[in-house]
Amino acid sequence: MSVLRILHLVGSADNDFYCDLSRLYAQDCIAATANPSLYEFHIAYITPDRQWRFPSSLSKEDIAAAKPMSLSEAVKFITAKTIDLVLPQMFCIPGMTEYRALLDLLNIPYVGNTPDLMALTAHKARAKAIVAAAGVKVPFGELLRQGDIPTIKPPVVIKPASSDNSCGVALVKNVADYDAALKTAFEHSDEVLVEEYIELGREVRCGIVVKDGELVGLPLEEYLVNSHDHPIRNYEDKLKRTENGNLSLTAKDGVKAWMLDPSDPLTEPVQEVAKRCHQALGCRHYSLFDFRIDPQGQPWFLEAGLYCSFSPKSVIASMAKASGISVNELLMTAIDETLIDKAACRE
Questions:
Q1: Which residues have CB under 8 Å from 248's CB, separation 6+?
Q2: What's the confidence (pLDDT) of residue 225?
Q3: Measured in whole angstroms, how far is the alpha carbon of residue 209 from the centre of its chain?
Q4: Which fold has domain 4-110?
Q5: Predicted confidence band of residue 347 (pLDDT cuts 50, 70, 90)
Q6: Which GO terms describe its molecular function (predicted)?
Q7: What do you get for the CA distance between the two ends of the chain, in Å?
Q8: In the chain, which segments carry CATH 3.40.50.20?
Q9: Dist. CA 312–CA 223, nearest whole Å
Q10: Which H helix or E strand runs over 289?
C-alpha cells in the first residue's frame, strides 16, 4: 500500500473561537495518528479573513510564519501536492459546507458527510423534521423568527436553530422568562427553536460508524444531568478557557460525561434509533446523535452532530475506544469507506 497524502483542513472562515476549537482537535488528531509508513500529512489552515496558510505544524509560531494565500493560490498549491484525501477539521458553518463543496469541485475525496447534509443538520429544526418523518420521536416545537411570539406553554427549552455547544440554550419554566431567553438565543441565530421540555430520565449520545458497508453502533456516552438543579446541558458542560487563553474540553473529565457499559439496557434501543436517524438523513462514514430519555425509557431525538476530527478526544473516537477500536483503526476504517465511495463514483 502506497503512502496516502492526507490534507487536514483546519481553522475557521467565521470566527476566532472556531479557529481555536478546530486547532485544538486537529493537533490531537495529528499527534495520535501520525504514521509515516501510512500517511503523509499536510495542513491547510483557514482564518476568518478567508486567507489560507499551509504551516508545517499547528503551533501558533508555525501558523504565523506560514505565507497567507488567496483561495486561487491555495487551490494551485493543493493541486500541486496531488492530495489523495482530505480530513475536514472545521466546525464553523462555512467550513462544514462551503469548504467541503470546494473539495467536491476539486474532485478530492474527503472523510465525513456531504456539505448539503452538514447544512441541513446544522439547522436543528430541519434535522428534526427529517428524522420525525422516519418515525423517530422528537419533542414538539416551533421555529420562531424575530418578532414571533411562542405559543407553547412552559416548561420549554429555547435554543438557537443553528448554533453548537449549547450557546444560547435556556430552560424556561415561566412565561415571564420568555423574553430574556429569546433575546439571548437570537444573539446566536436568526431563528430560534422552542421545544416542549421532555421530563428527564437520562440524556445520552450515540455514535454510528460504517464498516464494510454496515452500520455499527458504538457504546453510548451519558451526560451528567438531573431533574433537580441541572435538567439540561449548558456551554460550561462542554468547553472552557484555560488561564493562558486556550480552549479545553470540560466534557472529557469523566465527571460531566462518561461511557456506558454496553450491557446497559438503554444501549440497544438507542443504537437502533440512531441507525434510523443515520439512514433517514443519508449519512456516510459516521454519524452522531443526542437523545433525551424520558422516565419511561423512550428516546427522543434532540440533534445531530455529524463531525469527527479523529482526535482521541473526539466523541466518536472515545466511543470507539470503549468498544476496543483504537483511533488509528477508526481512521483507517473511515479512509477505506471514503476510498470505496470514490471508486464507486468512477464506475
A1: 24, 239, 240, 241, 242
A2: 82
A3: 14
A4: Rossmann fold (3.40.50)
A5: low
A6: ATP binding; D-alanine-D-alanine ligase activity; metal ion binding
A7: 22
A8: 4-110
A9: 18
A10: strand 286-293
How many angstroms separate the most distant Cα atoms in the chain?
Answer: 64
Can you tell me the distance from the alpha carbon of 342 to that of 337, in angstroms, rounded to the nearest whole number?
A: 9
Angle formed by the axes of helices 124-133 and 115-122, nearest 10°: 100
| Residue 267: φ, ψ to 5° | -60, -55
Numbered ranges of CATH 3.30.470.20 in the chain: 200-345
Residues 184-213: what's their mean pLDDT?
95
pLDDT reported for residue 228: 61
How far is residue 251's CA from residue 237's CA, in Å, rounded to a whole number?
6
- Long-range contacts, 247-252 (Cβ 8 Å, 24+): 247/17, 247/20, 247/21, 247/24, 248/24, 249/24, 249/313, 252/313, 252/318
CATH 3.40.50.2300 is right for the domain spanning 200-345: no
Average pLDDT over residues 153-162: 94
Where helices occur in 190-326 by DSSP H, the ranges are 267-281, 315-322
CATH of 140-196, one of 3.40.20.10, 3.30.70.60, 3.30.1490.20, 3.40.50.10070: 3.30.1490.20
The span from the CA of 88 to the CA of 82, in Å, is 17
The residue ranges of DSSP E strands in 183-282, in sequence order, are: 191-196, 202-211, 214-217, 221-223, 239-241, 247-249, 257-259
Helices (H) then strands (E): counts for the chain: 11, 16
Across 86-90, 137-141, 190-194, 197-201, least confident range? 197-201
d(CA 310, CA 312): 6
Write out pLDDT tens, residues 309-341: 999 999 999 999 999 999 999 999 999 999 998
Torsion of CA 144, 289, 139, 132, to 10 degrees: 90
pTM over 0.85: yes
